[in-house]
Amino acid sequence: MLMFTFVTKNSSSRHASRLLTCGGPCTVSIMSVFMDLNLIQNQTEDRSGLKSLIETAAHLGFSTVAVNYVFEPTTKKKQNIPSPTPINELIDQLPIVQGRSRPIRVLNRLTIVMSDSSHYRPTAAEYRRFDLLAVYPTTEKLFHAACMTYDVDIICISVTEKLPFFFKRAPVNGAIERGVAFEVSYSAAIRDATMRRYTIANAIALVDTCKGKNVIVSSAAEKRLELRGPHDAANLSLLFGLSDADAKEAVSSTCRSVVLHAERRKSAGGIIHTTKTSPEETPPTPDDRDAPAAKRAKPLETE
Amino acid sequence: MVRIKSRHLLCEINVTDRNCLLLLDDRAVLAAVKDTVLRMHGDYGAARCSIGFSVKYLNAHTGIVFLRFPKNCYKLLWSALPFITSIESRGHKISCFFNCLHVGGTIRTCQKFLIRYNTQQLHRMLPKCKNEEEKQEIRQAILNCSLLRGKKEAFEEASESEEDEEE
């Protein structure tokens, strides 16, 4: 269980990281920064749309976002898996996150919409170009396989249609044990009233089965007006049946463990893991200099 | 005697075009929130927000709004806020979204938070300036609000003056 050993770099930054306990295999997890792991890359629109999305996410206080490329294979003809556009081509300068003094981190994510088991190829070289890998199973058999065997990070839950199958305890527990997270996205619920019913019903069915563990809440926003702030998203997920602590983790520390899981998947099961360290990337005390606004001025730390 | 407790939500209204914000008034915001609560939670929610819910403060220049909710059901009513997509005001439909910045027990803590938040916004704005005049203006604004902090003056005025500079 290498991915559950969270190490904080500077334990002196008390305001930035609050301790909170959660049940399960990870006894103590760090309340980390907010993440939104699903921003839809709109193919028809030019890149200014994505740019304004990322800027809005930084303004709202998300420290990490993932640009989602949806790949829907059909049986008729062979399609190419989209290749991610490097983020420095999209935006020349990444915006600074609200309340922190560092630029926003942008990841690339691939979502495979699966209706047949041949759609997921475990050893495809195209998958290696993405930071995160997600599947969207549409049948019960594929859901079972995705939970138990597929080497992915996120399993998406349908939010736009009636639940195509019932969630069973066995595959869901298997996925939790392997560290695979389930994703509920809320922007369909904002757009339309019937979608809202499907989203809430499916999310409650999932949360009942997994008891609130390993659930992440993401936006799936295409326009900047569909994004919501991290506190709003956490409070919104109370409607999905999550408890207070689980709702907060759904936008922060579960997302962090998903990102760590993705790194472990890419680096030979986490046995060997190298990190690139360069002096300009790790400033000495990055969090303390520009802490989030509080109602009272915090005294400066003297060390 | 136990007093009635409430929660104050400090929200920021985000729009694409900042000029639309000037069309807002507190009655429009109140109507939008009540309408959304009715849509999301039905008659129960509407009844819950009929007593003890009010819009305490609205700044149309910056889009800052203080909402007051009863303490025992503020989470229920807050969960309806993300579903607001537009506000109907003076015949115009302003598409926007609410971003909750702070939840406080009193207005005073919200004001304190807002002052710090707006100061931070000024600091963030400084590197983005294009010409020297804007830069000088923002420097002056930061200086003004850092001088004010030492005195225990009415917070209302302090926050107002900062926000005007930000515009």
UniProtKB/TrEMBL annotation, chain A:
Alphabetical UniProt keywords: Acetylation, Nucleus, Phosphoprotein, rRNA processing, tRNA processing
One MF annotation (Gene Ontology) recorded for this entry: RNA binding
Region (Disordered): 268-303
An annotated GO cellular component: nucleolar ribonuclease P complex
Major subcellular site: nucleus
Places the protein is found: Nucleus, Nucleolus
Compositional bias segments (type: Basic and acidic residues): 286-303
One GO BP annotation of this record: rRNA processing
Presence of the UniProt keyword rRNA processing in the record: yes
Family: Belongs to the eukaryotic/archaeal RNase P protein component 3 family.
Oligomeric form and interacting partners: Component of nuclear RNase P and RNase MRP ribonucleoproteins. RNase P consists of a catalytic RNA moiety and about 10 protein subunits; POP1, POP4, POP5, POP7, RPP14, RPP21, RPP25, RPP30, RPP38 and RPP40. Within the RNase P complex, POP1, POP7 and RPP25 form the 'finger' subcomplex, POP5, RPP14, RPP40 and homodimeric RPP30 form the 'palm' subcomplex, and RPP21, POP4 and RPP38 form the 'wrist' subcomplex. All subunits of the RNase P complex interact with the catalytic RNA. Several subunits of RNase P are also part of the RNase MRP complex.
Protein known as: Ribonuclease P protein subunit p30
Species annotation: Sphaeramia orbicularis
Lineage: Eukaryota, Metazoa, Chordata, Craniata, Vertebrata
